Amino acid sequence: MALLLRAYTTPANTTATPPGAPAVAVSAPFPLWPRINDNVVDGTPVSYLWNVDPLTQPDVDAGQVVTFTTTLALPTLIAAVAATVVVAVFADNGSTTSLALNGVPVSFSVVNPLVNGGPVVTFGEDNAPPYFWDNVVVGVAEVTLAVGANTLTLTTTVANYATPGIPAISNPAGYLAEVRVYAPIAV
Questions:
Q1: Which 3 state secondary structure label does DSSP give 39?
Q2: Contact between residue 152 and residue 101 where contact means Cβ atoms under 8 Å apart
Q3: Which parts of the chain span the membrane according to its record (predicted)?
Q4: CA end-to-end span of the chain, whole Å?
Q5: Cα(61)–Cα(52) distance, integer angstroms
Q6: Rounded to 5 degrees, what angle do the CA atoms 187, 73, 160 make?
Q7: What are the tens digits of pLDDT across the range 169-185?
Q8: pLDDT digits (tens, 9 = 90+) for 48-84
Q9: Which of 31, 51, 58, 149 could form a disulfide with 169 if both were Cys (CB 3.0 to 4.6 A apart)?
Q10: What is the CATH number for 84?
């Protein structure tokens, strides 16, 4: 299978709600956050996202919930083709993710909740499950891409858990996802 698309969530392709505006790169990410494939595409580092930059706007609330919506256009196809979509998601702290192809929800299976792509630490974890702030969760979906244009929409709702006694500035918030689409054709 050939790689048809590899894309990360970026401020250019991702909206954060609230406020319903482009997501913002986190300028000082937590140093123990995991990476997804070294967070580099074509030699360009990829940023973790939030709805504001916690460094310049340190009022990111512990307990805050933000929904990120990423829209990705696939190459135009001259024939319908079966494809495999692989989604890798990091979120500090918990998250839920959904995927849609051309506006139709697609179910996917979580295949590996712990991915070798960054440090997995055992200290400082949240006090309640799920302990996702130090993990990358991977899901896989089998889809059929239509003739012509196809659009994938990734929607992830992230909760930055409240930690009693810890000020918001010490409770980082961030999100990053990678989407890969594999098909038996090359474009």
A1: helix
A2: yes
A3: 72-91
A4: 12
A5: 11
A6: 130
A7: 677 788 999 999 999 97
A8: 999 988 777 655 666 678 999 999 999 999 999 999 9
A9: 58
A10: 2.60.120.260
The distance from CA 28 to its chain's CA centroid, rounded to whole angstroms, is 18
State the amino acid at position 95 in one-letter form. S
Which residue range(s) make up the domain with 85? 2-183
Q: Which residues contact 49 (CB under 8 A, 6 or more apart)?
A: 9, 10, 11, 14, 16, 23, 24, 25, 26, 68, 174, 175, 176
What is each CA distance from 43 to 27, 34, 37, 39, 46, in whole angstroms?
Answer: 18, 18, 12, 9, 9
Amino acid code (one letter) for 186: A
3-class DSSP state for residue 51? Answer: coil
Report the largest interatomic distance among the alpha carbons of the chain, rounded to a whole angstrom: 57
Total-model pTM: 0.85
Q: Are 154 and 47 in contact (CB under 8 A)?
A: no
Domain count, the chain: 1
Nearest to 89 by CA among 29, 155, 177: 177
Q: Which two tokens stand for residue 13?
A: 């392709």
